[in-house]
Amino acid sequence: MVTANALLNGKLLGVSTAEGVIQGTDHWLYYKDSLEDYQGTALLSDRSLFNIAHSLSMMQEDLKNKGVDFLFTVAPNKNSLYGEHMPYYYKMKVTKENNLARLKPVLEKEGVAYADLYDVFKAQEEVLYHQRDSHWNNKGAALAADTLLEALGKEHVSYEGEPYQEKEDFEGDLDKMLYPLAMTPEKQFYFDRQPTYACVGEVESNFDPRITTVNPVKAGSLVMYRDSFGNAILPFMADAYASAY
User: Fold this and answer.
1) Please, what is the average pLDDT of the chain?
2) Which residue numbers delimit the AlgX/AlgJ SGNH hydrolase-like domain (predicted)?
3) Do 172 and 115 have their domain in common?
4) For the chain, which terminus, N or C, has the lower number of CB atoms within 10 Å?
5) Which domain holds residue 204?
6) Closest to 159 (Cα-Cα) out of 135, 139, 136
7) What does pTM read for this prediction?
8) By CB neighbour count within 10 A (0-12 exposed, 13-18 middle, 19+ buried), where does 241 fall?
9) Other Cβ atoms closer than 10 A to 145
10) How far is CA 149 from the centre of its chain?
11) Which of 154, 233, 230, 242 is nearest to 196 (CA)?
12) Same domain, 220 and 152
């Protein structure tokens, strides 16, 4: 009944019955927790922005003293890149600046090494996020990893131009929240190139909170703190280092 009600409202009325999901146009779904940032209705205070940047700056300085390179990045919210599919009644914005746009100059002022994924993705003609998931697809993950590794000055394989296979087998997190028994598989990209790293110990999936990898044909080590966007990036980052955590 839950799925049937969601289908009735979503397909016929164009509205979402799931608390955390926004029903967009052309089959697009968005994570509702990003709405306040999208509309600019609950922005961080200037003090909060400074606290974030200054804390990162202190972490960076401490690691520098230990001979460790530091890099910070933020995965852009889906509606900040592809907002054209947001419902018309959510498109009224208090300000065009979101928290990320306001944080960037503060990071620069504090001297934090920052990789700007928003500008990189915004410059791409191809859509690199899933329609019915809140995250990027494998092409987007490869682009993000390439950007981070270049910023770190790490030798790596760029997946730009690498051959891949397309399969309509990906089920999105937002789709699952909205239509748990009637999800619509969408396109995912699978690169032909095989990774050279291996996981240490038993790993159920890239969603595991702690994962250690080794790669006998690469050099260097990586410690990566990640959110859910990091799950798709993990294979590309792990493949560039002898050990990664």
Assistant:
1) 93
2) 21-178
3) yes
4) N
5) 194-245
6) 139
7) 0.91
8) buried
9) 24
10) 16
11) 242
12) no
Counting other chains too, the contacts that 116-120 makes at CB distance below 8 Å and 24 or more residues apart are: 116/73, 117/73, 117/74, 117/75, 117/76, 117/144, 117/147, 118/74, 118/76, 118/80, 118/81, 120/144, 120/147
Reported confidence tier of residue 11, pLDDT bands at 50, 70, 90: low
Whether residue 206 contacts residue 235, with contact meaning beta carbons closer than 8 Å, is answered with yes
Task: Tell me how crowded residue 169 is: count the other CB atoms within 10 A of its CB.
Answer: 10
Q: How far apart are CA 216 and CA 243, in angstroms?
A: 9
Q: What is the rounded distance in angstroms from the CA atom of residue 17 to the CA atom of residue 177?
A: 10
- Residue among 40, 50, 98, 93 at smallest CA distance from 74: 98
- Number of domains comprising the chain: 2
158 shares its domain with 232:
no
User: In the Cβ-directed half-sphere of 77, how many Cα atoms lie within 13 Å?
Assistant: 19
HSE, side-chain direction, 13 A CA sphere, residue 211:
22
Identify whether residues 216 and 137 lie together within a single domain: no
